[in-house]
Amino acid sequence: MAKIDVSDSKALRAAVGTYLDAFPGGLICALQLWYQCLDGQGVPNSGKIAAIQAAIADTPGWTDAGDVRDERYGVQKSYKRAAAGKIGTSGDKKIMVQHMFKKEGFYKEPDGTVLKIATSEAWNLRCFRFENGKLVGEMIRIHPESDRAKALVEVTP
User: Domain boundaries in the chain?
Assistant: First the structure.
């Protein structure tokens, strides 16, 4: 997509709306849109983030999801798709995450880190690192169709 000047609210809203209509996921943040939709470079300032968040909030079918931890962008104010029928879809094909990852299951990443799945939803896995018999650190959200999720291998602790 061509670079869009975020100060042009009309062009920004049109670009964000077009991107979100085709977006297969159910959860997104302004940083993800900055890099993937707007071809942004570097770290955007707070004014650009606010403009992108306003464009997402004005897009029909998307609502505020609060602060969510993303595997690439850290904790970000995020937005979720309000239409339940579209959550977790890739085109017309719905994914069944509950059959791919077991709730309360343990999965090993390629680097040896063991994760415990607290919840598996159509749009994300909510996990915690598992060390010495305990859950440690903050919740980690992983999109079930991401390369990171595909690399997970089920293990027994």
Answer: 9-85, 95-155
